[in-house]
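Readers of this paper often ask what the protein records in our data store actually look like. Such a record has a labelled line for the sequence and another for the backbone structure tokens. The tokens are whole numbers drawn from a learned vocabulary of local backbone shapes. We quote a single record here, exactly as it is kept in our systems:
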Amino acid sequence: MGTATTGQVILVGGGPGDPDLLTVGGLRALREADVVLYDHLAPLTCLEETKAGAVLIDVGKIPRGCQTAQTDINALLLEHAGSGANVVRFKGGDPFVLGRGSEEWLACAAAGIPVRVIPGVSSAIAGPELAGIPLTHRGLTQNFSVVSGHVGPEHPATTVNWDALAKSSGTIVILMGVAHLQEICAGLINRGLDAETPAAVVAKAATSDQRVIRGTVASLPDIAAAANIEPPALIVIGAVVGLDLGPAIPTTATKE
């Protein structure tokens, strides 16, 4: 009787949405996968590159919509890899930047499943860049911070040091924070950030629906509300937002 073989899990970062921003390694992993667990922020057109017979499983977590519990995702990874399949966990952005990739890695490692990661282009960097906002610029700032805004500064569950952010001279990038934009901006101002600091929201970055809304920390919440900005979106705060780099050449995803 033969010994059952164990498959593997590859955590693939799909980038911010434009298929062109998926890495060569990520594309190769998709083409070789027996099973792909994907979420809605990954570039889904890349699933067309999977081989015939590959099993594609939607495990997305849509805000205020369909949700797949992380424990269920972990269980699916273990089930399919444990039966010998080559499994890809296809995620938007980068697996280890507010993406729970490390939780999936730990679950696989605890079960003795081989696991590796293929990093992706994080929206924390790509989103501002595609909006013409550099995160650093000589003479303005030499550092940037990336934080989660899934809860606001006054929420007891936050672990972000909002006091330090408000006093930082660097660029602030806030992911998953548009629903709490008013609270975040007010919280930063109350902690000492200049209310006139340039700020922007970049919505649906790297897609044909990308929108960029600019203002100041004080004015941005009202401007974004009037523009009906909805997730996915990120917030950028700092002097670099005030730079005018001029119109960018559209990416593949934004060309007509």
